[in-house]
Specification:
Keywords: Ion transport, Membrane, Potassium, Potassium transport, Transmembrane, Transmembrane helix, Transport. GO terms for molecular function: antiporter activity. Pfam families: CHX17_2nd, CHX17_C, Na_H_Exchanger. One of its GO terms (cellular component) is endomembrane system. The chain has helices at about 30-55, 60-70, 80-85, 90-115, 125-145, 160-170, 175-185, 190-220, 225-255, 265-280, 285-295, 305-330, 340-365, 370-380, 385-395, 400-425, 460-470, 510-525, 545-555, 580-590, 625-640, 660-680, 695-705, 740-745, 775-780, and strands at about 450-455, 480-490, 495-500, 530-540, 560-565, 565-570, 575, 595-600, 615-625, 645-655, 685-690, 710-715, 755-760. The protein has about 775 residues and is α/β, with parallel strands linked by helices.
């Protein structure tokens, strides 16, 4: 058969640096400026595509693949002139090698983040989902491939090729899944955790499948090659686990507590990624496997795993991975789809369908709802970077041709692009929190146990929390069950961790144990009144609110206490935790119960035992009307029962109530009347009314009260406030989670040394407000 003679346009590229266009030189004739242009082009095109696809809720990987395809022969490089200037022969060589390095560091970071120890902790249902989700599509894909084997190419019809393609269709790559689940903010959701745990199991099975594929491919050359491959694999694995792993653990042991890992160790490990890739490639183990296995032997989380991810993630994802997608785009060519690619297309399509159906069926069998089962099946079918690297590996084996590679890439993009928005539509992680039953302080009978979820970011939050719990007046007939949740940002690992410290072994973390020890001492002093149940949640910041709301939902809490993310002092503010403002905002938006944001101004003591020592504590309630103000007053009423509490309630009224709803007015009047009648004989409770006509008068009245010593200001956040009382004040506060009045009282300008508790009453979903005096029946 006569072969076509292809005319190749070559252009010489020099390694010298250009002096500039003003010297009459073309920068594109020099290697480094051309490399910068290629990198800039793929980044700009990918970001433009991402911006255009944002309304369709597309993940980042889809826009990056499309960006590479646009630069490739399908679109721009279809012009021979464009291709010869942008991707001459030596520039094409550099681009491909940088692309492979990008995949290597992507797999290394994925290995560092992956926690294989989770296999010991996962539920049986996760094993069932993973096993059925892998074995059923594997068997189905092999069966279909055998049926259409005669119509497949010579290379594709080999047993090793059929196994390799079928295995890739069956497994779910954890690195791909985690990236998209993180984008969808489902990491801490029930379905997200289930999918990630199942994906880890799937990856372990997938590694076994890859080993079988590589061994059979090696055996096609010489039978002894398969044996040599397995021997090399055993030696490489032993070297990793016995030598490299022990060296990593030694680095962790020798690093002082609270100190970062020495920079030289970080540099050596990052350079070892390329060494591991070289050794793995030399022995036929596949270059990507070396990087992945090196990442797996790194202890995940701080100090080592966290700093490795921190140091390498930006370089790998921003500067190297664009070359990877450019490499993919250069091979993908729609014009190559002229030969017989349909058998492979049907085989792959059937494999994806069988996997989705198998996962859906097993999820329904395990009593998941239809919506959740469908969501899980879609998540487990997502495809991305790992699949693209496998396609390149098959190209190296000459197992597939360009048209096969093109159809595989297009199917990868299509599946991920179609399934991701469906996941967003089908699954709302906040849906379980939308309760219709009242879970707040106002409607909780006084002689019942109060369930509280208390969030802790760091040790500095402890004293303010303990002081608030003491002021809340726990008693024998009204004890507190406090579920403390220590929030730890997930760094250097992917799988979120939720620990119940009463039922599991404590983590080997001195910072966590010091918090728990302080809580234990506090409970011993108030043991008959307060029962503390410690929990720890390690997850990304965007998903922390899900752990908080889920714990509150499961424990039937009527109050969530969230610490303010800033420390207020006399001289100014200091941010305690960067990015934690969004945690408070999300909790306020989705909580299944009442939320209190605590702005603590208390000095942090050295001894936590014995929180309240002074004889009298002065509390002030700023009652501006509405549901939040009524909840704040109800909480203050509980506190007023403590003998060492002096409570002052200031109700703000206006002569202009045109915008104030009649229903809110009745509810406010009813609760205030009940409160005054109940505490009429209590000389430690003072009730005042202040008439104002606008926001400025409201602020002036509050400022006038600041002369008195106040230990705690209690104020409703915003719901139902009479608009006249805030007229003229800016609706935009610096700290929106505190509301307009709360933000002012917490500001340095106000000048108070007292702490502030901003209360938001539970927002009922799908239920109209109760009648004006429905709450009265509980109290009389």
């Amino acid at each position: 058969m006569a072969m076509k003679q292809n005319v190749v346009i070559c252009r010489a590229i020099t390694n010298d640096h250009a002096f500039g266009v003003f010297y009459g030189q073309n920068p594109l004739k020099y290697s480094f400026p051309l490399l910068l242009l290629e990198l800039s082009s793929i980044i700009i095109i990918s970001h433009v595509v991402r911006f255009l696809l944002k309304p369709l809720r597309q993940p980042k990987v889809v826009s990056e693949i499309i960006g590479g395809i646009i630069l490739g022969p399908t679109v721009l490089s279809r012009s021979k002139k464009f291709h010869s200037y942008m991707f001459p022969d030596n520039a094409d060589y550099v681009m491909k090698n940088l692309g492979v390095m990008g995949f290597m560091y992507f797999l290394f970071m994925s290995g560092v983040k992956m926690d294989l120890s989770i296999l010991k902790r996962v539920d049986k249902k996760h094993w069932y989902i993973a096993l059925v989700g892998v074995l059923v599509p594997l068997i189905g894909s092999i069966s279909i491939a055998l049926m259409v084997r005669k119509s497949l190419d010579k290379e594709l019809s080999k047993v090793s090729s059929i196994w390799g393609i079928s295995a890739s269709l069956a497994i779910t790559a954890f690195p791909v899944l985690y990236s998209i689940v993180k984008e969808l903010n489902l990491v801490s959701s029930e379905i997200g955790r289930m999918a990630l745990s199942s994906a880890v199991i799937s990856d372990v099975i997938g590694m076994t499948g890859v080993i079988i594929f590589e061994a059979t491919k090696q055996g096609e050359y010489k039978p002894i090659s398969a044996l040599l491959y397995l021997v090399s694999l055993i030696v490489f694995t032993a070297l990793m686990m016995g030598g490299v792993r022990q060296a990593m653990l030694w680095i962790v042991r020798t690093t002082p507590e609270g100190k970062p890992v020495d920079q030289i160790y970080v540099v050596v490990i990052l350079l070892s990624v390329m060494v591991a890739g070289f050794v793995a490639d030399m022995f036929g183990l596949a270059i990507g496997n070396g990087a992945l296995w090196l990442g797996l032997v790194v202890p995940d989380g701080p100090p080592l795993g966290a700093i490795l991810v921190e140091k390498s993630e930006t370089i790998a994802m921003v500067f190297l991975m664009p070359f990877s997608f450019m490499y993919i785009g250069m091979i993908t060519d729609l014009s190559s789809l002229v030969d017989d690619w349909k058998p492979l297309f049907y085989m792959v399509l059937a494999g994806y369908t069988i996997k989705m159906a198998a996962t859906l069926i097993i999820a329904r069998f395990l009593d998941l709802t239809i919506r959740d089962s469908l969501t899980l099946s879609l998540i487990m079918s997502l495809r991305g970077e790992v699949e693209l690297l496998l396609f390149l590996h098959w190209m190296d084996f000459r197992m597939i041709r360009q048209e096969h590679f093109t159809i595989l890439v297009l199917l990868t993009v299509a599946v991920t692009a179609f399934f991701t928005p469906l996941i967003s539509i089908l699954y709302d992680p906040t849906r379980p929190y939308m309760v219709n039953r009242r879970r707040n302080i106002q409607h909780t009978p006084p002689n019942t146990e109060l369930h509280i979820v208390a969030c802790i970011h760091e040790e500095e939050n402890l004293y303010g929390l303990m002081k608030l719990l003491e002021l809340s007046n726990p008693m024998v007939d009204s004890p507190f069950s406090v579920y403390t949740l220590h929030l730890v940002e997930l760094i250097g690992r992917s799988n979120p961790v939720f620990v119940d410290h009463e039922n599991e072994d404590k983590k080997d973390d001195s910072h966590v144990s010091s918090i728990h020890n302080a809580l234990k001492i506090f409970q011993e002093t108030r043991g008959e009144f307060i029962n503390i149940h410690p929990f720890t949640a390690m997850t990304i910041k965007r998903s922390m609110y899900q752990n908080i709301c889920e714990l509150a939902l499961c424990k039937h809490a009527c109050l969530i206490i969230v610490p303010f993310h800033k420390k207020m002092t006399d001289t100014g503010t200091r941010t305690l935790k960067q990015g934690f403002q969004s945690v408070s905002s999300n909790v306020l938006a989705h909580a299944p119960c009442t939320v209190g944001v605590l702005v603590d101004r208390s000095p942090y003591p050295n001894i936590i035992n014995g929180v309240l020592r002074s004889s009298m504590h002065n509390l002030v309630v700023l009652f501006l009307g509405g549901a939040d103000a009524r909840e704040a007053l109800s909480y203050a009423d509980r506190m007023a029962g403590r003998p060492a509490i002096s409570l002052t309630v200031i109700r703000f009224l206006s002569n202009q109530d045109d915008e104030y709803t009649e229903m809110e007015k009745k509810l406010d009047d009813g609760l205030v009347t009940w409160f005054w009648v109940k505490n009429e004989g209590n000389n430690r409770v003072v009730y005042r009314e202040v008439v104002v006509n606008n926001g400025e008068e409201t602020i002036a009245a509050i400022q006038a009260m600041n002369g008195d010593c106040c230990d705690l200001w209690i104020v409703g956040r915003k719901h139902g406030i009479n608009p006249v009382l805030l007229h003229g004040l800016s609706n935009r506060s610096e700290n929106s989670e505190l509301g307009i009045i709360g933000d002012y009282v917490a500001s340095v300008d106000f000048g108070s040394r007292g702490s502030i508790l901003v209360v938001q009453q539970q927002i009922l979903r799908g239920q109209e407000p109760a009648s004006a005096f429905s709450w009265c029946t509980k109290w009389w």
